[in-house]
Description:
Layout: E1 17-21, E2 27-32, E3 45-51, E4 57-62, E5 66-72, E6 78-82, E7 88-94, E8 100-105, E9 117-119, E10 124-127, E11 130-133, E12 138-139, H1 144-149, H2 164-174, E13 188-189, E14 197-198, H3 216-219, H4 223-241, H5 245-260, H6 268-290
Antiparallel strand pairs: 1-2, 2-3, 3-4, 4-5, 5-6, 6-7, 7-8, 9-10, 10-11, 11-12, 13-14
Amino acid sequence: MERLDADGDPLPAPRCTTFVYDQFDRLIAEHDCSSGSDPDAGDNVLAEYVYLAGYHVLAVRRDGDAWYWYLNDHLPTPKKLVDASRVVVWDGKMEPFGETDEVVAAVEQPLRFPGQVADPASTLLYNGDRFAQAALSRFTAPDQEHDAALTADPRSPLGVMRGLRARMMREATRTQAFAMADNNPLSYVDPTGRQVECVNELLCDTEEDYEIDWDWLWNAPGPLTVLAELLDRDLRVLACILSDLSTAFRDVRRLRQCLGSCPSGPYQAKCWLACGVAQFSERATKCIENVQ
Length: 292
């Protein structure tokens, strides 16, 4: 079959590349699988990658026996590629979420964030279980854990309570089902597309980061008065929510049923949060509007 362009001129044969991964989901080789070639033949090995621990790529061999060495940042994300003479053969100016301007590209270099491989044909980033679109700072598909929680599986909350799907969709959006690196590419990576990983505990959020500093109570003008007003308003909102006991008990029963249906895993807590939001958000919103 001959391939022609719009003017009837022959097009070059399409390129076929086989990507080889190891048991840790790391790209370790690229083979030419064009028509009539043996991708496993030595002459058809386009690239071989060497790693240190984890996804820290050290070097790549291209063009037969030519070795090139990676200069990475703390994530580790490749920033430059140099040859044996220390000449920069690839230099990528990267935006925060991976959109890359290859200012030097004498040698092909597709690796981006740990676990990501750039696909020039689609401009997407292959990222294990999902594809990412760096220009949008988002994955093209939701996280699998969130996606499972939003199906009609009877074991999920959606099979238990009518109308929970829409509410959980809103909650899933709030918890960033499509987010890359937890919206913090300085501190987190997601090599498999399934779970973010902290690159350094000093850079990542901890429970201590969210502890309330109560010193303002004693330093701010009139702090106890302000605190009393806040507590009084919160108590009145709570009393409003619980005023209709029959409805409140019904909501509690449904909440327990919803919590028991949440899938186990890293997002179980967020599913629990979604259950609580679904049960009490409407009542709480009305009470907050009425309590001034």
